[in-house]
Amino acid sequence: MDARFFVAALLGAAGAWVGVIFLRRTLKRHAAQAEYDESAYEVPAEEAEYVEAHHEKPDYDDETAHESPNYDAEYIEAASKRMEEELRRDKGSRSPEVPAPEAPNSRPFPEMPLPPGRPSPTSKPPPGSYLPPPMSPSWSAHIRRMMPLRGFRRLLWGQRSLPSASETDEQEPQKSPDARFPNVYLYNENLRSIEPLESFSPGAVIRLMIGIGMLDKASRVLNPRSFAGLIPEREVVVIRVLVASTSFTIGSDRSSDGSTSSEQELTLPADGGPGATADGNDRLLFSLRCPEWPGKADARINYYYRDALIGSQILRADIGWGPGQNSVETGYLVSSTLLDVDEIPDVSRVSLLLDAGPSGMYTAVLRPADSSVASEAVAFSIPETAVGDLVRDVRAELARTVTSRRVHSKKELIEDLRRLAPPGAKLHNKLFVQASSILGPLLVPGQRPILSIARPLNVTFTLPWNLIYQISLPSGRIEDVPVCPLVMDWDERGPLIEGVPNDCPRAVDVEHTNLLCPFGFWGFGITVESPASSLDPKVNVSVRKGATVLVAETSALTRETLSALATHTDGMAQKLDLAFPGLGIQLIPQSTKAEVQRIITQDLPLVYFFCHGDRPFPSSPDISLSVGKNELISADEFIGWAKDSYRTKPFWSEVRPLVFINACEALDISPKTLLSYVDAFVGGAHAMGVVGTDVPVPATLAMQYADIFFNELLVDNATLEEATKKARFAFLADGNLFGLAYNSCSWSHLKLVASTSG
């Protein structure tokens, strides 16, 4: 009996406790509702009239409360303008009130968004939107989106849904170099801000808004990077903003007529203020129509200055009806702060962004040079499986053309053309079918625009741009394809070519279609630059008085080759004296890893590696530089040197060098390569650029190529592209395509110039 009484008493006490908890929660709900009744729509005084006239308090017990009222474009536009006019009153600019028209039962795409931070009249999900079940991970986030109740939300989550008056009062825009950030905002078709834990509905229209100004906490960019360098002197800066995608269809209005890209313009004033559109708005508006099927989707937001890509952001989103994610991240910046952006040469450029995509895909965004046809920019996908074999084939064929002799016969040149042209033509066809309107003009003889390649540091895939062959080839045996008269009429007693022409001298005699000609390769006919992301976009390497030039050598050479290398380095020292008389430039050859590490930490204008490029084991995708007696310096190890230098003084912090790697396969960036030396030297240590080879090269020819290159770069004060072309054509004059083995990752206009200070 006592036991039963004890159990009954225990159950009674438990029931009473449950009742107390239930009562407390009921009282809290009533208190929250009372607080909501008083403050849910408590807005700044300047909006009170508008809110009273147009905002209705929702009844959250009504099952139809989630339905959005039907407002047409005219209604929303007028209401938006009314709000903007009322918000300007605190600045003394009063405008006559505009009565809002009646809202008929239609809801086309509105033309103007409400200001950020204000709840819109249509801030609830459209009919049929997904409502997650209770206890699901996205339940609380969904409630926060659905219930803008200040008291209730503060009770549950400790935050307010509506900003206070002090938070929403319009402030004078901050005008300083640090104030310029690319801000991105996402809204659905009904002007409701899209939160990160939402998916995009299939077929829905997303409003993407972009502005450049002071950093906005409402911006969706996860890793905002400042455009601080976009502060010109006594002039404005015009930034072209391109949105491109292989998933969404893009437009500047609701139509989204199937385009893969859309481009608009922002003008940044010289006083450091925010950017403005042609009609005075501070934000650009794009529409993105989602795919009709669930899955993943992404888009690139690219920023261009003087036709050069200076920054890129990636919008990623889940497409579906349930909970998901969406984000905007900075993917590429040509420099960390865009300082000295005005040093980017103002020349005609075709810009190509090559970025990583999902599942072994790469995304390319190709933009034409002429801004008048900028709407023709194209975004397309490059499957690794579609081009990987071609890239390997063309590099393998290039390696077969390399011999130990500089002078080749006519027969050897024809054989080399037959080896390299077919895989190079297939690579060009892969690109041409995706962007014929952009690549087509590059076939026209004359002064062509620069092809500017942007590759984010984390992307370990590229194409051998020099080896792409743009002249069409017929089907059938390559031996049956005619050869250009430039080659066929060569008597082998004189040079094949004179100077550095833009086009084949025999193009006026024979139509350059369905034939083999050296000028079909981009490396001879087109200027290709590939500026890697670095500290700033400078194009001038500063050479100071008493500067040091490091030559990191290998000693694992024959006696004859070591003697030739000594002559080669002596010649470099003489070229430096001729180029910079009176500066006392010191050229220091080093053949031990320890000495290389000690000297390389100094501020050097030029670093020259003449060494082997070895793999730790035959199947390794990574290549290490071998100095001294087979002492390996991996890309990872060099990055470690750069990190360690931050304990005292980061090396290359004042003078940033050009790095020339004359080593076997030093720039062989394959999809399996974890780190390349481009990323190590430019990304890790902020070098100005890197020059290197794609395939193994013999030491004698490597020294001859470098002699021509440095003579042009130093003595003749040529740009990087001019020096590269001079060396390539010098070998071509001897019937040799060897110059195509070298490429560079830098601005084509890079120069070494004497410093006036220090």
CATH-defined fold name of the largest domain:
Rossmann fold
Output mean pLDDT.
Answer: 80
**Which value, in Å, is the CA radius of gyration?**
32 Å
Total domains: 4
Largest sheet: 6 strands, mixed
Rough outline? globular
Describe this structure in words.
- This protein has 758 residues and is α/β, with parallel strands linked by helices.
- It has four domains: 67-166, no CATH class; 171-344, Sandwich (Immunoglobulin-like); 384-529, no CATH class; 540-754, Rossmann fold.
- Helix content is 28%, strand content 20%.
- The protein contains 17 helices and 25 strands.
- A six-stranded mixed β-sheet has the order 17-16-18-22-23-24, with helices on both faces. Strands 5-3-7-8-9 form a five-stranded antiparallel β-sheet, with no helix packed on it.
- Helix 14 (635-645) runs parallel beside helix 15 (677-684) and helix 16 crosses helix 17 (720-732).
- It is globular.
- Residues 34-72 and 90-174 have low confidence and may be disordered.
Topology overview:
Elements lengths: L1 H38 L5 H10 L18 H15 L51 H8 L3 H8 L7 H4 L12 E7 L17 E9 L23 E8 L4 E3 L9 E8 L15 E6 L5 E11 L2 E12 L6 E8 L15 E8 L4 E7 L10 E6 H18 L8 H23 L3 H4 L10 E5 L30 H4 L33 H4 L2 E2 L10 E4 L4 E6 L5 H21 L6 E5 L2 H8 L5 E5 L1 E3 L9 E4 L3 E3 L1 H11 L12 E5 L14 H8 L4 E5 L5 H17 L4 H13 L9 E4 L5 E4 L4
Helix pairs in contact: 1-5, 7-8, 12-16, 14-15, 16-17
